[in-house]
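Notes on consecutive records. When two proteins share a document, each keeps its own sequence and its own token line. Never mix them. Below: protein one.
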Amino acid sequence: MYLKIIKMLTKIQDEFFKYLEIAGKTLSGSFVYHAGTRYCLEWQADRLHLVTIAGADGGTVDDETRFVAESEDFVLTATPSEGKSFGMWRGVPAAVCAANPLRMKVTKAMTVTPYFNGKWSYDRDAKTITDGNWTLKVTEPTSGNLAITCTMAGSSGSGILALTSFPEDVPGYHVTELTACQRYQSPFSAETTGGHLTINAFVGPEVTSVGTYTFCQAGAMLECIVLSDNLASVGAYTFWATGGVTRFHPARMPALASVGVRAFCSCGNGTSAELEPIDFDLPSLTQITVNEVFNSAPIVRSIRADALTTVTGTDVFSNSKNLRRIVLPKLATVTGGNLCKGSLALGEAEIGGTLTTLPANAFSGCTALSNVVIKAPVSTVAAGALKNIAPFAKVVFTGDAPAFASDSLSAADAEAKNCRVRVCA
């Protein structure tokens, strides 16, 4: 009798699960026997998302289109065909797109497509690397490390440029650098010169240095950029006006010590639903001496720079529409104005260190800014520094109350009794 009941309830459970998968519902569960007295079905909420596995030339994958629960560790392995190498996964976050096997949690419906390129080779005499699609000039600045020479001469190719398999295809060699170039002269730069190569994605997991103008104004077709976790140097205008980018890696850059003017300026497709803004963590960056490094950059969701002491550039984080939080705990000198001016989504800011003057227009026009904590011994709030921030915003000075310039706040904000901004010493 008990066996019949078990079979009957198991069949009901199986049919119900089929319905859930077809309908994309949010339950999963199990059939449980309780203490010899009763049988029941126990349920737990678990959202399901449809993962569509798209086919691709050059290899196979070990799974097929199916619903995946949010609690599941989704794993997918790509196997290249003879003469091919794995390049990347399209449709997944940049942080995992070069991993094979792919391991991730699924939080939304997505289409995952493997990309396979030809095996890479290195012609030491011609100083070129090629995968059969891309051919790029290189130099060898140090033994075993190659630098792609970012000039049109000798360069060809289109589509996805993935160096993921390079160290396996060419044992003993690594592509670690993209060299600086003149404006519009990089093969990955602006289309206006007529010689620009169409690039949809750049995947260079070992690239630690990216030179001036490398991807400058790459256009709407460049959607994904993946560089080394140990990225150490980003040149001037490197990602300037890369308005098609929706995915970028890395977010945490523990080795980054140098950034050039407008390095990330206008990076990110601010109108795309596919944009994945990221939390930049820059623990080794000590100074920013140039202008507009993260200005108008939709790719930025937050900034944390624990070692940053000196900012002499202007508009360094200004007008970034998706910037929501900034933490700069060791600031000592800020001489450039407009630090975060006009970043409309900025809600939280924390400033520490030995800073004595909150600079002009630092948070002017940050209309969502509701929580500001100043842990530095700021004695002066310069003109416009807190002007037109959120109504009834809380501004906390952990030291003595500073002196406010006449135009540092909106009208009457500095009055203790009747102010929009509450200053708490």
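Protein two starts on the next line and is unrelated to protein one.
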Amino acid sequence: MWLLSPVFFAYGLKRILDGTRVSALYDWTGRYPWEWSNSGGKPRIWVHAVSVGEVVAASSIVSALKQKFPNSWLLVTTVTETGMRAAEQRVRNADALAFLPFDITPFPKWAMERVRPDVLILTETELWGNLMHEAKKSGAKVALVNGRISDATFSRSQTPLGKKVYSWLLSHLDICLMRSELDAERILKMGVAPESVKVVGDVKLDQPQVRLSESVKASLRSELGLFSDHLLFVAGSTHEGEEETILRVYQRLCGFIPNLRLLLAPRHLERVESVMAAVRSLGLTPVRRSMCTGKPLRQNEVIVLDTIGELAKLYALAAVAFVGGSLIQRGGHNIMEPVLHGVPVLFGPHVDNFRPHAELLLREGVGFQVKDGNELFEIARKLLTSEPLRRTIAWQAEHLLARHRGAAGKVADAIAELINCR
């Protein structure tokens, strides 16, 4: 009956037309393979990560859990197609990958019957009410991991209606493993019992140094048409309202730094054509990443990233990076990705989703917050014209990450303690 619903059909069709694989239709209804219910392995663990950024965190968690429980059976779910592709690339030790079922009865119930998890692990802000409710009914524990409470979420939770909604949602959680003291304080104010809240650190910071070898970087630079003396400015996860600002800043910077080149990576691939049009409107020539064959990149050419799963790697080629969703009110995106490569990162004022990260990077001198295009130009020029400064920032980034490693292991330990209490 649900499959015949016009709303369900229209939404599913839109998702598929936007690039989601057709097989997702079965996952959305919770109709996972029945053989999953009989597959071996204990404990049975379900980890959910909504999209690419959360998959990065989940990859470390999954690795730690597999080390802790080598005989476990582990499912990773995601919501977006880009998240699924990232999971296929990064979470190779999961036993199964799937899309999250729609949070509409009876889909979560059908999913639970097939997965039969001992523990459901939700990352960051993924509080799906019906899914958690069915998990508890099935006897599973429910954990929030790398818990993040944004400014907007916290504000909503303090309204009369929000208090009722979040009280019900949070009542399903057996443990909340938060990424920072600020997030822990907020979830406590939202009504979670103190004994259920722990600060374990940010799993997104608990990533191995992902520095590419010099040979790999040289190969990538050659593909993109970059000479050895070219400086690359990478602007990642950008949104409408940001690209024009970045392009104008790039044009100004070229007046001081003739060997500068720009790579633009829109947050959503369906916007590639509109971003290319924006590039042309300013008298520049867009070049699709997928069409880069080694032809020397000229100053008036701008690479537009139209591939999935490459941005995190391409940050390694950058002299300076900007992470979007932050000059406009979108809450920002993963400002840590460039830092993993020792690259100085710039971001706008709107980083509500990554406030602890932003404060940490600003405090450590690895990140730089700008309010508009003029500040972006000034700070980018300072960084691009000083190689010693960039080297110092790379050293600071390496030591910063070293101090925050171990969060994924703490998560695995807490999950072990949780499910052994059953």
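For the record: DSSP finds 17 helices and 14 strands in the chain.
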